[in-house]
Design goal:
The chain is of the alpha/beta class. It has 9 helices and 9 strands. It has a single domain, classed as Rossmann fold, CATH 3.40.50.
Length: about 260
Amino acid sequence: MSVYDQDGLRSIHNHEFMQDPEFQRAYDRGVSAAGEDYHWHWRVHVGLWAAASAAKLAGDFVECGVNRGFLSSAIMTLLRWDRTGRTFYLLDTFSGIDERYVYPEEADVVMERNAHDIAVGFYTLDLYDVRRNFSEWKNIEIVVGPIPETLSAIKSEQIAFLHLDLNCSLPEVQTMEALWDRLTPGAFVLLDDYAYSGYRSQKLGMDAFARSRGISVLSLPTGQGLIIRPPAESAVGNAAASGTRTNWAKQLAGKVFSKSGKVPR
């Protein structure tokens, strides 16, 4: 068995999923959407597993932070989306990060990275190309604009799968606050940047949210994080939520950022 060495993850462990024809078909569709292979095989494998598991539950799918649609295109290909009878909501500014929804304490880091990703063409600004990519599927809703402003466009009463990849903390936690009660028991929430190097503010922000619900986030070696919505919140979780749900931002401001204003690593 060869060594897996991609995307910050080096492992001698079994990765035969890369030879699975269904995985290859889905991954190749993601590459086609992005126009480039970023060598995200294990990261996409996690996303496909979570989506396939979520497909056994009632509810629609939501992705916040779509960009060119690598993961969502791979998911819809794997699941043969139009046969599922579900709607996939795809939310993004499609113009980079909106600075209004970035904490001042992390703005320098986040907006510098944002400018770089726009300059090198990693972030797409071509909404026409995005719509063309997704045009093969019927049951989708492309929602353009910054979160949290666009969350009201999600009409689903049940959500089985939520993927967050917003590259900054505030809108991710706002999304969780807004959608948590609509997540189907057992729903999968995949956090793209939770454990990724250089994105610690997102981890700590999501940790604060998770504590307010009496749950925790599974940290993955791919750099992702995973939450599975419990069947019912525990009494401890409900008690914690009642005291912290409205002031998680204050907790975050006090714990995520150093006194210098830089995001600690």
